[in-house]
């Protein structure tokens, strides 16, 4: 497995290897969304991977879904992210901040302005939400007007600009996992009768306009997007034409020259193969639950240019060293995934700290 550890070009950058840290919500920012010093430690620890993709980061107050998630739209946010970028760059890695608008996957108690969530249509997810006062039922969001859509695209553009100001190497637009962009893609969440609903072309329009706007703002070579074709979670159902929607969407996104496409591979080999054929730049593949013995197989086959890993990187800040030494990975503690302090966040041992693990 030598090739995965060699430097590889990614747009204007050169990555030190072909492995990426997948985005994972950890809910350890300050209440106003400002990143903490612990977050700089956390990302810096894992920056021996070639590419670090951050947790979902809201581009606006409307975009926040969960408690204590980071933002990237104020001066305080920029200062906090600058420390993270410095920590990642000190290890010769590259940092892409994932821009995530939660859409209907939110609750007024979790946002700074305490307003009703916005979404393509006034349809609740049916998913209970964690809030400062405990679990509460999902609320019906407000259907976005055309002006809301335009403002949200502007918010993405502004967030991308401030991400670069903070020292990030680029941004990854979150178009997956049942959040706002995928809500536009799915007929179960999008009942609109205007240019943003109904046909495949209309349902894909918002994703394309966001990607185009961000690419115009910071350059396509700094702009990426993540998709999760076939996700069925939190009320998302892309319907029988879902595969064709993604074939169209990826073809249109490819025309923008984005630096990479990050795909969450959920098992539809035919569709992902079609996506691979339609995509001209780097393809990042994340297969949730991929076993240790399968690491590198998408790279060796030429299917992926970069492989992304989540929980294994979360629990193994020395992920690359463990791969190279062919030693076991520390299991992740699910009880400490969201919120809390240093435990289960920046205290996972590296090999030299815990030689018995190896």
From TrEMBL:
<dbReference type="InterPro" id="IPR013785">
    <property type="entry name" value="Aldolase_TIM"/>
</dbReference>
<dbReference type="GO" id="GO:0010181">
    <property type="term" value="F:FMN binding"/>
</dbReference>
<comment type="similarity">
    <text>Belongs to the NADH:flavin oxidoreductase/NADH oxidase family.</text>
</comment>
<dbReference type="InterPro" id="IPR001155">
    <property type="entry name" value="OxRdtase_FMN_N"/>
</dbReference>
<protein>
    <submittedName>
        <fullName>2,4-dienoyl-CoA reductase-like NADH-dependent reductase (Old Yellow Enzyme family)</fullName>
    </submittedName>
</protein>
<dbReference type="GO" id="GO:0005829">
    <property type="term" value="C:cytosol"/>
</dbReference>
<dbReference type="InterPro" id="IPR045247">
    <property type="entry name" value="Oye-like"/>
</dbReference>
<dbReference type="Pfam" id="PF00724">
    <property type="entry name" value="Oxidored_FMN"/>
</dbReference>
<dbReference type="GO" id="GO:0016628">
    <property type="term" value="F:oxidoreductase activity, acting on the CH-CH group of donors, NAD or NADP as acceptor"/>
</dbReference>
<feature type="domain" description="NADH:flavin oxidoreductase/NADH oxidase N-terminal">
    <location>
        <begin position="5"/>
        <end position="328"/>
    </location>
</feature>
<keyword id="KW-0560">Oxidoreductase</keyword>
């Amino acid at each position: 497995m030598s090739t995965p550890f060699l430097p590889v070009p990614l747009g204007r950058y050169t990555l030190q290897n072909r492995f990426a840290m997948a985005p994972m919500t950890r809910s350890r920012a300050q209440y106003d969304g400002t990143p903490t010093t612990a977050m700089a430690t956390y990302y810096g620890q894992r920056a021996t991977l070639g590419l670090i993709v951050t947790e979902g980061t809201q581009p606006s107050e409307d975009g926040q879904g969960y408690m204590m998630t980071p933002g990237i739209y104020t001066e305080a946010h920029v200062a906090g992210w600058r420390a993270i970028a410095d920590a990642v760059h000190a290890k010769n890695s590259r940092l892409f901040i994932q821009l995530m608008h939660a859409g209907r996957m939110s609750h007024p108690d979790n946002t700074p302005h305490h307003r009703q969530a916005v979404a393509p249509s006034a349809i609740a997810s049916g998913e209970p939400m964690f809030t400062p006062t405990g679990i509460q039922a999902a609320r019906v969001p407000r259907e976005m007007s055309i002006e809301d859509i335009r403002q949200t695209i502007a918010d993405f553009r502004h967030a991308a600009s401030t991400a670069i100001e903070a020292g990030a190497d680029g941004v990854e637009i979150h178009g997956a996992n049942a959040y706002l962009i995928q809500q536009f893609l799915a007929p179960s969440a999008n009942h609109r009768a205007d240019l943003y609903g109904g046909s495949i072309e209309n349902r894909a329009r918002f994703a394309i306009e966001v990607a185009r706007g961000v690419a115009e703002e910071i350059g396509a070579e700094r702009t990426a997007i993540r998709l999760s074709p076939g996700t069925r979670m939190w009320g998302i159902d892309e319907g029988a034409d879902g595969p064709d929607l993604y074939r169209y969407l990826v073809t249109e996104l490819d025309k923008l020259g984005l630096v990479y496409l990050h795909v969450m591979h959920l098992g539809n080999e035919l569709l992902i193969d079609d996506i691979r054929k339609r995509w001209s730049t780097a393809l990042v593949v994340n297969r949730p639950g991929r076993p240790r013995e399968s690491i590198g197989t998408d790279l060796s086959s030429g299917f992926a240019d970069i492989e992304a890993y989540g929980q294994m990187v979360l629990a193994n800040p020395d992920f690359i060293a463990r791969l190279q030494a062919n030693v076991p990975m520390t299991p992740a503690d699910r009880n400490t995934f969201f919120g809390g302090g240093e435990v289960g966040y920046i205290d996972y041992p590296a090999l030299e700290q815990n030689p018995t693990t190896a």
